[in-house]
Amino acid sequence: MHDLLALAETAALQAYAPYSKFRVGCALQTLSGRIHTGCNVENASYGLTICAERNTIFQAVAQEGTSMKVVRMAVVCLGHEFPPCGACRQVIAEFSMADGLTEVIFLRDGNPVTRTMAELLPEAFVIPS
């Protein structure tokens, strides 16, 4: 768990955040055991900005394929503490373990907090099969 936090913090150092100044990093472990990292990349038009969590998930899909599943994820924002935003929660849910037990780790008052996706997004949008 703490290794993912350290990797997320290192990834945050690479963030391109000249507008918000929120430098966010993410590290995730997939079902295959692979670790992926990413950071937020902002854009002057704001709407084209991508959060660290989505950036990392999209990279993981590009490297592992569409069956990639996230087992656990850590998110760190340098100088701030907060969980993933709503848009990121929905994307995380798309690639989470079927049981909703994918763990998301973030900092609160300097301490790691772990929540499952079922706790962070109990009513995730899904397309019925």
Present the secondary structure layout:
Blueprint: H1 2-12, E1 24-30, E2 35-39, H2 52-64, E3 70-77, H3 86-94, E4 103-108, E5 111-116, H4 117-120
Question: How would you briefly describe this protein structure?
Answer:
The protein is of the alpha+beta class. It has one domain: Cytidine Deaminase, domain 2, CATH 3.40.140.
Supply the CATH superfamily name.
Cytidine Deaminase, domain 2
Rg over C-alpha atoms, rounded to the nearest angstrom? 14 Å
Number of domains: 1
Can you tell me the overall shape? globular
The SS-based structural class is alpha+beta
CATH class, named Alpha Beta
Helix proportion range: 25-40%
The proportion of residues in beta strands is 15-25%
| Total strands | 5
End-to-end CA span? 34 Å
In this structure, how is the largest beta sheet organized? Answer: 5 strands, mixed
Q: What name does CATH use for the topology?
A: Cytidine Deaminase, domain 2
The mean pLDDT is 96
| Spatial order of the strands forming the largest sheet | 2-1-3-4-5
CATH architecture designation? 3-Layer(aba) Sandwich
Tell me the number of helical segments per DSSP (H or I, 4 or more residues long): 4
What string gives the helices and strands in order?
HEEHEHEEH
The unreliable regions are none
